[in-house]
Amino acid sequence: MIKDPDNFSTFLPRCGRADLFNFIDNLANIWREAELKSVVNDYRDVSTLYLNQDYDNQLNRLADFGLIFQPLMRVKSFDGFGHKHEISENIDENTSVYGVISKNVSSLKKFKEFFSEGDDFNVGLMLGYPECCCRSYSDYTRRGIIDPVYEIAESTPLTTSKSQNVLNVDQISWKLQIHLRYFGLKIIPFFPCSFVCDEAISKAEEWHKILRSINSEAINTLESLMKRSSTWSLYNAQIVVNRPPFKADFLGYATSNYFPEKREVEFLNVE
Question: pLDDT tens, 122-174?
Fold first, then answer.
């Protein structure tokens, strides 16, 4: 198994959907604002953040909100979705500073300690994710699984096996369709322990509220894009996300762990 795949994701809009490029860019900005507001409005104690180039203005803006920034590492900048950080020794236009924000220094110190130890469980708890989801994700990372969509489907009640290595997940909340995150389409910033986890759904409602407070029109569009059936597949470290024929708006690709046999999850009747 390849435990450390390269960062890569792309999507190909279908005919007439070139507008998705601008929408995805706008959604990324909305998410950056949501991460900030989640701490400012006390939904959680800490949030991670990337700073790049315009450091003084970005730090001043954080200070205006009463937030402190604790650097964690310098990383090479990348577009789209990434499974990992590539360490950079430089400070230049191709480098970002990855760090954590909070209103209090003690939380920053505690988070930095957990992060430095590679303690995914406690890092997730500090980021406000459900304990059950933190526990399952921590177990996956210990096993070298960084993208556990198939494993989450296996852990979801009422999931059925269509054929060998092909699972059907039926009647789940659109807010938990985490397999669309490669392309910026998401409501939650974490992996649920199952696609029907009550704690994850409750947390998704909180994030939905934050995101709508920033741009309700864009989040309505996001809902329309996510509230559809789709298929996720993994083969030879390549992920493909597709839509049913005649309803497809894009075809997406990303990298992940290597598995010698094809794995597939069909998400049906998304509500």
Answer: 999 999 999 999 999 999 999 988 889 999 999 999 899 888 899 999 989 99
Give, for 11, the enclosing helix (H) or strand (E): strand 9-13
What residue segments make up the domains of the chain, in order of their start?
A: 1-40+139-271, 45-127
The sheet carrying 46-51 orders its strands as 46-51, 95-102, 68-76
* Residue ranges in the chain assigned as alpha helix (H): 19-40, 55-64, 105-116, 120-126, 131-142, 149-154, 198-214, 216-226
Q: How far apart are alpha carbons 87 and 154 in whole angstroms?
A: 34
Tell me the per-residue pLDDT of 178-231, one tens digit each, with 9 for 90 and over.
Answer: 988 888 899 999 999 999 999 999 999 999 999 999 999 999 999 988 888 888
Q: Measure the CA dihedral 174/19/81/97, to 10°.
A: -120
pLDDT tens digit string along 55-87? Answer: 889 999 999 999 999 999 988 776 656 666 677
> In whole angstroms, what is the distance from residue 76 CA to residue 87 CA?
6
Q: Give a three-class secondary structure readout of 55-95.
A: HHHHHHHHHHCCCEEEEEEEEECCCCCCCCCCECCCCCCCE
For 194, what's the count of Cα atoms within 13 Å in the CB-facing half-sphere? Answer: 14
pTM: 0.88
